Amino acid sequence: MKTTHFLSAAALTAATGFAASGAQADELTLCWAAWDPANALIELSKDFEAESGHSMSFEFVPWPNFADRMLNELNSGGKLCDLMIGDSQWIGLGAEAGHYVKLNDFFEAEGISMDDFIPATVTGYSEWPKGTPNYWALPAFGDVVGWTYRKDWFEMPEHQAEFKETYGRDLKAPETLAELKDIAEFFQDREIDGKTVYGAAIYTERGSEGITMGVTNALYNYGFQYGNPENPYELEGFVNSPEAAEGLEYYKALYDCCTPPGSSDWYMSANIDAYKSGQVALQMNFAFIWPGVNADPNVGGDKSGYFPNPKGPGGHFAQLGGQGISVVSYSDSQDAALEYIKWFAQPEIQSKWWELGGYSALKAVVEDPGFATSQPYAQTFLDSMAIVKDFWAEPAYASLLLAMQDHVHSYVIAGEGTAQEALDALVEDWTEVFEDEGKI
Amino acid sequence: MSETVMDRAASATPTKVARRIKGLSDRTIAWIFVAPTVFLLLAVNIFPLIWTIRLSFTNFRANRPNGEVEWIGLRNYQRILTDSDVWLTMQATAHFLFWTIFFQVILGFALAWLINRKFKGNDLWTTIIVFPMMLSPAVVGNFWTFLYQPQIGLFNYVVAFFTGADPASFSMIGEVALAPWAIVIVDTWMWTPFVMLICLAGLRSIPDTIYEAAECDRASKWRQFWTITVPMVLPFLMLAVLFRGIENFKMFDLVVQLTGGGPGNTTTLTSIDLKREAFEKWRTGFSSAYAIILFVTVFGLASIYVKALNKVKER
Chain B partners of A260 at a C-beta cutoff of 8 Å? Predict the structure, then answer.
């Protein structure tokens, strides 16, 4: 009897011990860019900490240094990050270099279906190779380049009248890139409330990815393609087509005619500052800024409106932003990290994510009948997400990006050569990269 | 016979140690003491250099540790030396080096000469002048971007005040013609005090008796300046040029903060280009070759310069 009692006690102790070790609280570190949505995620993650018992810490790096810092971390096999909300273009490198854990089996086991997410975000943030059902991330933050405009300035009767007289149409959110340029020109150097204002704040930054994320919004809509759709690495005639050159000329013309003086190296935060301080009528920026604009005491509420990137003669596209959340393969807490992803994928958590200012990519949230009217920018977000196109996500994306930054900045900002020469040089550099990569 | 220091040291050596080193020559003992330093030097300087030379002949990429590494001979060197973009960065670096050193030497010497006069508030002025040098280059780069802002920047307003031009009509860091000068101005502002301090040390090392002798010979101030001051300060000045030359050849942080290498590639100095190749594109083999070329250039130029410096000192 005593022996039975002893064995029972031992078994109970062992079982309790195993259970305890199975539910052991981990310390998870989530790495992302330092921006407004990251603060919303800290708030959201408090629920996860309360539910799971794991504690969360965060490593946020400002955008200009984000890729440098985090890719170095991944390339060195660092254990700093358990979860990485990495940029969409990193997915190829993350998958091929073994930085990210493949999530297919996990998704299947937990009943997480990629069909439940906006298709563009699945392709952009999760799949590698593109167009195949191999998933390395869960879509975490849907983002896209769009435009913000000063609705109050547009609605001023004197502006309405003058614009109609000059251009023969109403002053309203533009539908084409040509209309956008007209509006930017109209506001350039205009006196409003005793202050000189300018047309548009656009992306021109040289150091990281800025000007590429901006110029593609013109290039795509004039007919630029990353390659032959039938043969992905055939660049000649697609990247440097006459239509693409026209798109590049358009972006330069927009920069030359209608941007504030000194805006030769502007990206997200510089554009936000210019807009919020009342310097510009139009602002190009990723959609993540819209909650902040809407809440701003100077330009928020009815003073601002939002519209998707306007169409051009060659199509209607917008540059995809946003990120997926991945489990870092070097993490010692992969189980807890997967637990976080499982928790994050739940519809009610995604719904709360949207409420806090995060752009959910879950269909259940964005297709909810009340979504489009839930915020003044919600419909624009939906319209924009329907036209997205992304930059290369190849493992060598950094080389491809730097080449584009170099040639585009040299033409648009420094005014060196012609648009055609810039794109021809880009084709040369990209071809060299793909040759080095053994792709061609 | 009284006990010497050597005897006392020998008697204080523990028997165990004394027995162990007995029979070792002075040279061997010296090597034992020097060995850790030599080992460290080999590990952190010489080995990486040799390794870099080796990598420069391959297509290795540090972000693909499992990728196949091919021996490609001199291809990386050939690519670099025939790449027009690399030559443009070399030109940008040469422009930056020449003009920063030129202005810093002229202004640094002039300031040192003025500060060397005896006047009230001399120490206070020295402290004020030296202040920019104490700041972090990243901070300096950041706040000069504000000073150069066409709409709100103080720099444009000062220029506008003197020239009557519209402050918003030019952008120091956004225009191809002005950006190379923008970085020269900031570096000169920051590092002229350094040259001034070295020149000041040189000026203060000149004995007053030499000037007194020149006065007795009725030498004019102008002649004293060219025949006493300049020759005696020259070795100090050359040393300052050497330091500034080496520092500015590897200039990175200040320029990245100010212009990010733009507009286009106008202010992309070699160190910025090298960093992009090595740690953004991860072309480790290529960037190793690039680094070796730069190393040989700096080392060669510095060696020639040091020889010239020694000759000046011997005079």
Answer: 151
